[in-house]
Amino acid sequence: MGRTVQITFDAADPAAVADFWAAALGYEVQAPPPGFDSWPEALTAFGVPPELHNSRSAVVDPEGTGPRLFIQQVPEAKAGKNRLHLDIRVAPGLTGDERMSALEAESDRLTALGATRLYRVEPDGRMEHGFITMADPEGNEFCLD
Question: Cα(13)–Cα(2) distance, rounded to whole angstroms?
């Protein structure tokens, strides 16, 4: 039996982090269960108190091929560098200036959505093809590759 992967993020504001990653990846916030028009309606019906309605969220690939991202609320702030990060592959097959221009365009788009640009690594003509490291609105690092 095949296995699937879900990627889980800790967050202070799961809805905001979910909205960012949905826009960044072309994903969608996961729809509420059948029979409900919204998550607040479903959560209320399930007896979840209103103060916990933003305790988790999820985004899914509308094509059903990419991993589900689950965002859960935690009380503590991010304390250090990620030990695991996502690479968003926005320039596969591109090299040199063409590659870096594509990465810059995506960096600008994601910055407008609330990401922070951290640094850029230039192609070196040997092993390094160049990338841009960024952080989502809550500081989780990711790379544009």
Answer: 32
Whole-angstrom Cα distance, residue 33 to residue 138? 28
* Strands across the sheet containing 131-135: 86-88, 141-144, 131-135, 116-121
Rounded Cα distance, 60 and 18, in Å: 10
pLDDT in tens, 67-123: 999 999 999 988 888 888 999 999 999 999 999 999 999 999 999 999 999 999 998
- Which pLDDT tens digit goes with each residue over 12-49? 999 999 999 999 999 999 999 999 999 999 999 999 99
CATH entry, 6-73, from 3.30.1380, 3.30.750, 3.30.720, 3.30.450: 3.30.720
- Residue span(s) of the chain under CATH 3.30.720 come to 6-73
Give the separation between CA 114 and CA 23, rounded to whole angstroms: 11
Q: What is the bridge-based pairing of β-strands 68-73 and 56-60?
A: antiparallel
Structure tokens that stand for 40 in this block = 């607040």
Residue pointed to by tokens 């040199």: 96
